């Protein structure tokens, strides 16, 4: 039990606490505080407790004690935020809240006696949202939270900057993060209506400005652009012809589009799992490929380490630890891929995609082109797994580059090339596996036209 009075530097009126937001598939865990706690009983909060020592260590203790989840075992640290300081006059106490964000693979939570209920909800459920603003009944207008819970969440929530700087995760996951950024801002604008009144035109201008920044954050990722465009197009379609889509329409649309995007990625992985049999070779970190391997029946998996960030190592570790994958996992250098394909009995090359061009060429982590070319040379089928939202409406796709120091951090004067993505020709790819099944070449153009129609929301 850690819900007790705490002090810092001898000030008996100041209490330092940690609050962890556990995130799973776009939702966060809220816990209802029971009568067993000393403060704010009957209110909703995150995983929290008094910081009796180092907050970075204490927050992991609280997660373990209050949820039964083990940090490091399916629970991964994302970021810590600046402390939130406020005073509660009713308690005569000053609080310093240290916020944290963790991602978890599971919603199977075993709450301690400090809580008598739990829910996984969109973070905007922390806000005081009025159903009269046109919101669906999913919002609980009676949910009373601990003070400054939303402020603490904002300190660790995804941002345009965090999306632009993320070099660990694939395009599909970052597209979800982009929708979360748009969702959170729309939710806050809805909540602010109680104080400032509705201003649909002003809300729309602010949200479209945010969309512009999101689209500029990762210009090479078609899936991010397509999914944000779909959310805005759906918001426009939900309003009357003569009215401006305001924050409530965007909030509803982003919530439904997060669900839609996650389902599309799941369905693409399920389709691809049928190909994940025998000996499979992959590279980099694709969440869709990882789920396909978990859902398939591979007898062996080769994983290229994917220099310089070596995200392939993380994939290999997850596969080795996964209960669903009961087969040998071999990690190798990127340069050894062609050699291993020529000597090992590999049945399929299975890779993800950041973007698929209209001509069928695949933009993905550097090394994909070499792997596909080698697979084609050896007569090994090359399958690309991607939701249809990864098809690009643009003829040219900008290719991102990494920093010089990731390859060479010495003082010698020579150029360093660190391309993050390469382009695999369409004739080196046997199939593109999507939530709609394996796309035929002539079907790619039809999907591209669907996605181009989503961009018309900005013409209004």
UniProtKB/TrEMBL annotation:
InterPro entries assigned: IF-2B-related, IF_2B-like_C, NagB/RpiA_transferase-like, NUDIX_hydrolase-like_dom_sf, NUDIX_hydrolase_dom
Cross-referenced PROSITE patterns: NUDIX (PS51462)
Domain Nudix hydrolase residues, every copy: 13-142
Name assigned to this protein: NUDIX domain-containing protein
Gene3D superfamilies, alphabetized: Nucleoside Triphosphate Pyrophosphohydrolase, Translation initiation factor eif-2b, domain 2
Upper lineage: Archaea, Methanobacteriati, Methanobacteriota, Stenosarchaea group, Halobacteria
GO biological process: L-methionine salvage from methylthioadenosine
Family: Belongs to the eIF-2B alpha/beta/delta subunits family.
Organism, scientific name: Natronorubrum halalkaliphilum
GO molecular function, one term: S-methyl-5-thioribose-1-phosphate isomerase activity
